[in-house]
Design goal:
Elements: H1 3-21, H2 25-45, H3 56-85, H4 90-112, H5 122-144, H6 156-167, H7 172-176
Length: 177
């Protein structure tokens, strides 16, 4: 083997190593929705001026409901990604999703301190945490009820994947190819 062939082989192995570290379709399938939702939250919190209602009670309730909803969705998407990607048990997945949601809420409120016309508030982090807890509480509740079909928590596609994987019909790569 000549020097050129040796260099090509070493370079080829490095390229294979780098490529093997890139996200797989499975990773993208589970994590991309959560990352995109985080982007939606970031863009929304980057707006200088939010619409408001003249009635202060309605304005307050609407904005806080928005916090609860957006972080409930984020917590669910993070739980989905953690539990499916790592195949962790329910409790670590729920705890991980809550911690990540809370950390993102804190970073989002910090980010708002740099946006003209906005301010970061600890109370908003509380509403964000409430949304995450409510969503994860629903996941926990429905995952504990063995009488409910899997589809009550998972999408039809996820449930189909789990059934086929448990039966040994297909591998993850075949399902996501």
């Amino acid at each position: 083997m000549g020097v050129g062939a040796l260099e090509k082989d070493v370079l080829g192995n490095r390229v294979k190593t780098v490529l093997s570290r890139l996200p797989t379709k499975r990773w993208l399938y589970y994590w991309l929705p959560a990352l995109l939702w985080m982007g939606v939250i970031f863009v929304a919190s980057s707006r200088s001026h939010l619409p408001f209602y003249v009635n202060k009670t309605v304005d307050f309730a609407t904005k806080k409901a928005g916090h609860v909803t957006e972080y409930g969705v984020l917590a669910f998407l993070l739980w989905r990604a953690i539990s499916k990607e790592r195949e962790w048990l329910a409790l670590p997945s729920l705890g991980g999703a809550f911690v990540l949601s809370l950390l993102y809420a804190i970073s989002d409120e910090f980010h708002q301190t740099f946006v003209l016309g906005r301010s970061g508030r600890l109370t908003d982090v509380g509403f964000d945490a409430l949304g995450a807890l409510l969503a994860l509480g629903l996941v926990w509740r429905f995952s504990k009820d063995e009488n409910l079909p899997k589809e009550a928590i998972l999408s039809n596609f996820d449930a189909l994947q789990l059934d086929e994987l448990q039966d040994g019909h297909k591998s993850d790569d075949d399902l996501l190819a």
